[in-house]
Amino acid sequence: MPVDDETCDDSRRMTEPGSLPLAGIVVVLAAGRPAAHAVEVGPAGLEVGRGALGGLLENDERISRRHVRIARRAAGWEIQDLESRNGTYVDGRALASGETFAGRPALLRIGRSLLWALDDVRPLLGTLATSASAPDVDEGPIVGGILRRAFGEIALASRSSDTLLVLGESGAGKELAARAFHEARHGSTPGAPFVAVNCAAIPEGLAERLLFGARKGAYSGAASDAEGYIQAADRGTLFLDEIAELDPLVQAKLLRVLETREVLPLGASRPKKVEIGICAASHRRLRDEVAAGRFREDLYFRIGRPEVQIPALRERIDEIPWFLARELRRISPDLSASVAFVEACALRPWPGNVRELLREVTRAAHRALEARSDVVEPEHLLAEAGVAMGTAPAAPRTAGLSRWSDEDIRRALTDNDGNVRATARALDVHRNQLRRWLEKHGPPARQDDGKTLPPEDGDE
After folding, report:
1. Do residues 221 and 344 share a domain?
2. Which residues on neighbouring strands pair with residue 100, listed in sequence order?
3. Can you tell me the distance from the alpha carbon of 293 to that of 54, in angstroms, rounded to the nearest whole number?
4. For residue 381, what is the DSSP state?
5. Which residues constitute the domain of residue 437?
6. Is 456 left (phi over 0), alpha (psi -120 to 50) or beta?
7. What is the pLDDT of residues 253-289, one digit of tens each?
8. Which of 126, 160, 233, 352 has the fewest CB atoms within 10 Å, counting from its CB?
9. Are residues 402 and 382 in the same domain?
10. Cα distance between residue 428 and residue 31, in whole Å
């Protein structure tokens, strides 16, 4: 993804001296559809209902006109349910009607929408996107507001340096950052190579040959000249993922390449000129590795600045609904995620980050298809998915109609004139579940004349 001047300007504004954090909320799911809309919560607080936020939640029929009040206090967030018809959930827990929650929640669910409470929404202000308007949903990288700050730093780095150090957890998107660095430096140069190397996956004893290349006869079995990764990246970018795994002797040769702009293949007598940019990445702090004697100090000073930190997925949950929508659409165009499933994914820490999320969402989608459901529910997500190793999995959350009492279901049917499709949408369940409930309990009687409601009226 190319990094433009607007992204750079955003990064500068967010890091200006004296710039204070702005507390606010981000609508990450609006009426069941991915969204990205940030709103500041001022000192007086913010009241959210169906007609608020510029009509963004207007299509969520399960949100009351006056649903919830949100305020930021010195001790944390204050969330008050305004006696809404369908309730307010804070981090998955339902508030009692009129109850006020005080603390530091991460996520609110109202109706079929999710609101993310943040102490600082500056990275996301000015964004307004829905699944119909966002350009990165169907192809290309998904970059949310939090990640854009890092991409702004990458753009600045590309203008002043031929090296970049990317730090972040496994699966957080370090290669995506490296490609952004490459695009920023070579976007207008056709054919500029980008060569990605996972240093942790190089077999022991082969790193020198694979990185620097070898001449014919340099070792037993070398029947011809072999180009190394560095030569392959000439006039482009070499991405060295998990660079801390390189042997110290190889680190020394890599430093010489960076200082002389020459590479000497194994068995060669003359070096070859190369012009490359280096993007190095690690899930460990290289300064700590230097202090422990596992990484060369001189190489660190050559590649350790500029440095950019890629936030973990749990710090940028605004991206999760977009990832879910794209992955489910890839598996089947008929699949969709319930708001409870999106909420369940957003509340898990995902130590494996994006890589783990996509793998587990795929598994959940296939479990839903096996159950002949085109709606993915929390029950389709494995209990251990997205939780830290050694942590006891959370108890499975109830899904589907089991979340609602019979009286809630009868009231929803009455409110929607017996329309099964509209009622299922209001309850956030599949209509086949509602039909099975009707077969067992029958339609509710009307309050005014005692007539019963047609269970299938207007369904199709």
Report:
1. no
2. 80
3. 56
4. S
5. 398-460
6. alpha
7. 999 999 999 988 876 778 889 999 999 999 999 999 9
8. 160
9. no
10. 10
Q: Where residue 187 falls among pLDDT bands split at 50, 70, 90?
A: confident
Going by C-alpha positions, the residue among 405, 403, 398, 439 that lies closest to residue 420 is 439
Total of domains in the chain:
4
Global pTM?
Answer: 0.77
Q: Are residues 339 and 371 in the same domain?
A: yes
Which amino acid does the sequence have at 96? A
The answer on 378 and 261 residing in a single domain is: no
Backbone torsions φ then ψ of 209, nearest 5 degrees: -65, -45
User: Quick one: pLDDT at residue 324?
Assistant: 96
Tokens standing for 171? Answer: 């699966």
Extract the tokens encoding 117: 């409470």
Residues forming beta bridges with residue 308, ordered by sequence position: 166
Phi/psi class of residue 217: alpha, beta or left (left: φ > 0; alpha: ψ in -120 to 50)? left
C-beta of residue 80 within 8 angstroms of C-beta of residue 64: no
User: Tokens 């699944």 appear where?
Assistant: 131
Sign of torsion, CA 336 339 342 345?
A: negative
Nearest CA to 211 out of 255, 175, 162 is that of 255
What DSSP character marks residue 38? E
CA distance from start to end of the chain: 42
For residue 127, give Cα distances in angstroms to 26, 35, 46: 10, 10, 19
How far from 156 is each of 8, 175, 181, CA to CA, in Å? 7, 18, 9
Cα–Cα distance, 363 to 335 (Å, whole number):
13
